[in-house]
Amino acid sequence: MFNPHPRLERLNVGGVHDVWVVDDVLLQPEALRQRAISARASFTAAPHNAYPGLEWRMGADVDAPLAEFFMLHLRQRFGARRTLSMYSRLSLATLQPALLRPLQRLCHRDRLGVEPGQCVAACTLYLFDDAALGGTSFYLPRRPVEHINADIRRWAQMDDAAFTAEVSTPPGYLAASNAHFELAAVVPAAWNRAVFYNGSHFHSSHITAPDKLSNDPARGRLTLNGFFICRSAAA
User: Fold this and answer.
1) pLDDT tens per residue, range 12-33
2) What is the rounded distance in angstroms from the CA atom of residue 159 to the CA atom of residue 51?
3) Domain residues of the chain, as ranges?
4) Which is the most buried residue in 29, 32, 80, 190, by most CB within 10 A?
């Protein structure tokens, strides 16, 4: 399923070198897109997290080869020595700006409740042809992260109007620096390209043309997302 000889490129994000861009990830990427098209009714809304669209949780037939690919080619590069758990999902970003909740208008981190001595890695694999649907952007906090975290907890309790008044920007996807975060890097989307990154990085889908979003896997922003909780090598 996965290319045994991938091409990896390291990306510098604010002096931290744990973002990796991998091209030609799948041997037959169209097969996974066709699977999504055939089972489009399996996608459901994701109200429990920050993802602005639809999701379909994958099973062992995808999780196992993705976990093996991560173990063989990426895990050591993240300073990890054992994968404790992982899962993957097919995702479709669909929400128009006016429907975004406050936290969906910001970047976020994938922490997944990790314990001391653990770390989180994540990946996004692009399964669409139109690069204008957007890649992935990474951000650096402009203030101490503990202050940012306190604001995020407060923003999570706000309604849309209160949040809009506080940040003084209209509803929309984050795709540029603002008063709280500095845009550090953007990985453009490309067919069968994946970006693997440390989940502690602030990141976001880099969506600048939301009018192109669709709930049709054949033409929408279809991605395979994976999340890996690992034992840190130093632990």
Assistant:
1) 877 666 899 999 999 999 999 9
2) 18
3) 7-118+131-189+208-218
4) 80
